[in-house]
Each structure stands twice: as structure tokens, then as C-alpha cells.
Amino acid sequence: MRQTRFDGKGSRIRWTESVGAGPARVFVHGLGSASAVQHAHLGADPRLAGRRTLYVDLPGHGISDRPADFGYTLAEHADALAAVLDFAATGPVQLVAHSMGGAVALVLARRRPELVGGLVLTEANLDPDPPAEAGSSRIAAYTEADFLAFGFPEVLDRVGAGWAATMRLTDPLALHRSAVSLVRGSRPVMREILRTLPQDRVYVQGGRSGPLDGAEELVRHGVRVVTVPGAGHNVMFDRPEAFAEVLAAN
Asked: Which residues form the AB hydrolase-1 domain (predicted)?
């Protein structure tokens, strides 16, 4: 495990890392999850062997610190991720980011383009105000006080055993503030950032999730949209061999 400070007050963001050559591959998890849980199993695929690989937990998630005076906005998460890449001296990396992590990756690529050589975004949040049934919207619907008082256990009961297992490792305050920021979206909005970035960009969609809104426009702006049949939101769990194939090709 490695760590570095991220907020000017001594709080530490942490990650696990495997050695290798070539441009580093950096995995970033979604809301209420952890990177090693979501992605470490892919390291066993021979097509992905030999690359330096980092599994980063965003502030408030997994093994990273969870300061109560941190905002947990998309921009602040992006700056914390930049602290990892600066400290680890990765050079331009391939960011592989899921859901909320994809929104964070897009903000980072805009703020610190020299750190990002390419992006593989798995069902990343591209637009503000997701549907009311989305996990982030359900969390953000609580006030912060209500979520801390009774909302967190209610959400754990509703999200299902798989997500609850990692959500329990997330600080409730960090979870709520992250969800609120995700629902609000970035400025400019994440979709606009994706359209205008110069880096190599791949968007991975699970076939069971239905068509990606605005896919044709993204393709016109140079984004490769890949649909993985038989997969839902968690493509890396539903079809790990197909997801590894996408990564190996990029």
C-alpha cells in the first residue's frame, strides 16, 4: 500500500500498486466502492500483464482517509487523484474509471491534461441530474443531516448486497457529499469535457443498460463507444474477459 497527502492538512489518499513497464494504468472506482475490489481481478488476465498498475481509492472511500472538513466535490476528488499521480511520478497514464470515477477522471483530464494519456470510461456519469432511481440521486435526495442520522442504513438496505459490501467501507459524510456533487455535475459538464478532450477516449457501455444517450455525437467527436453484450452497469464484474479485451486493445 502507498499513500500521499491530498488536502494540505495531512489527510492521505491511498492505493495499491503492481510493478510493470510502459505507461501506467490507473483504476478509479465508482461512488461508494473501492478500486481494488472493482478491478484487481483483471490483473490476472494475461492480456493486461506487464503494465504498472495503480488501484486508487478516492478520499472517503476504501482505505483512504475521510476528513470531515473536506468537500468531496468532483474537482476535489480530481485534485486528490492528481496528488497520487504527481507523487507516484507516473507520467501520462491510462485512466480506467467507473461511474462516478469516470466523472472524476474527466475533470482531472481537463484540469491536469499532462497527467492523462488516455481514458477508458465505464458507464461514467456524463450529465447532471440523473434519474431519481439512480443510486447517486437516492443518496443526494436526503439532506446531509438526515443521511447521517438515518439515511445511510436505509440506503444500505436498498442497494443490494454487492454494493452494500463496499458502501459500508465508505464514510457516510463522504458518500453523501460525493453524491450531491455528482448529481450537480461539473462545470463545464462532464459530457462537454469528454467531447472536447484531445486524449484518446473510450466509453464502455453494458449492453443490458440500453443505448448510450448521445452516442452518435460522442463518436463524431472522436470518442470510441464500445458496448459489451450481456453486461450491466458493472461491466468489470459481469463480463470481465470482455472488459479485459477492451483494455488490452487500448
From this structure: 26-246
Q: How many whole angstroms separate alpha carbon 180 and alpha carbon 81?
A: 19
Please, is 222 exposed, middle or buried when counting C-beta atoms within 10 Å of its C-beta (0-12, 13-18, 19+)? middle
Is residue 100 within 8 Å of 206, Cβ to Cβ?
A: no
Domains with residue ranges and CATH for the chain? 2-127+186-248 (3.40.50.1820)
Element (H, E) at 28: strand 21-28
Largest CA distance in the chain: 47
β-sheet with 93-98: strand ranges across: 2-5, 12-18, 51-57, 21-28, 93-98, 116-122, 200-206, 224-228
Model pLDDT for residues 104-120, shown as the tens digit of each residue: 999 999 999 999 999 99
Residues 61 and 179: their CA atoms lie apart, in Å, by: 13
Cα-based torsion angle of the residue sequence 165, 144, 70, 114 in order, rounded to the nearest 10 degrees: 70
Instruction: Find cell 478500486 and name the residue.
Output: 35
